[in-house]
Amino acid sequence: ARKIIIDTDPGQDDAVAILLALASPEEIEVLGITAVAGNVPLPLTQKNSRIVCELADRPDVKVFAGCDAPMKRKLHTAEHVHGKTGLNGPVLPDPTMPLQDQHAVDFIIETLRTEPEGTVTLCPLGPLTNIATAFEKAPDIVSRVQEIVLMGGAYFEVGNITPAAEFNIYVDPEAADIVFKSGIPLVVMPLDVTHKVLATRPRIEAIRALDTKVGHAVAEMTDFFERFDVEKYGSLGGPLHDPCVTAYLIRPEIFEGRHINVEIETSSELTLGMTVADWWRVTDRAPNALFIGSADDEAFFDLLTERLGRF
Ligand code: BDR
Ligand code: CA
């Protein structure tokens, strides 16, 4: 199984991504979950991470709290999408499993130093603050990372938080810039693909029909998450952004993209946090990312429903 660290800001879609990973031990070994401020402030994202582990009956998973604000900017949150707790929808008990004492950034550094070189994949599902802070604090770890598979950015679909930018990148563009310039192989799940993976009514009902604790909780999360896109954009369902990351680790063939150059806008007020993706290769800038553009959404939901059914 591939060893990963999930860096996250739950978030209903983050929660589903975590559940998919924990349901897939043959393919994925979760070394730890590092929480970051994003959709909601850090006290809630670390708590929600533990709520999700307990929902999966995995109180043994190590959860760490990381950075509570972007590297250089004030935190922007997304309660308008995720609700006040970040995990609105299901009613889930407060967690009793512990939060680890170690800071998430130090856990990331220590893990990359102790695991064999090139064997740990980072899976960021929120703003890239923890990851970039770890790289700044311990530059020696950068070359030890196997790959980064992240949710963030947009190209044809442009922005969901400003006209130009996707939320995760917009919240901490300086951190994103560090990650995109790190030289580590990147796989990027932008809105272009996540907006093709929609939790439509029949798909939510198939998950609810599992008739398990996890099935009901995920259906209630996606019910809540769906309302925003359906009401605001008239789409067929809410996009399951973050689960694209963990699904890619299990079945990469579900996704298609291009190896291209992607750079982050960090100065323009108008387009701050834009992922400037050279999709048509009109520059000679070296490719630094596999930028995903499409997915077999039926195969994605078949996989997700089957794996959630294992709980
Ligand atoms: C991203 O922002 C968050 O709201 C979601 O959890 C996802 O990671 C989508 O833009
Ligand atoms: Ca997220």
TrEMBL record:
One of its GO terms (molecular function) is purine nucleosidase activity. GO terms for biological process: purine nucleoside catabolic process. CDD domains: nuc_hydro_IU_UC_XIUA. Residues 4-302 form the Inosine/uridine-preferring nucleoside hydrolase domain. The keyword rRNA processing does not apply. InterPro entries: I/U_nuclsd_hydro_CS, Inosine/uridine_hydrolase_dom, IUNH, Ribo_hydro-like. Keywords: Glycosidase, Hydrolase. It comes from the Bacteria. GO terms for cellular component: cytosol. This is Nucleoside hydrolase. It comes from Pseudooceanicola antarcticus.
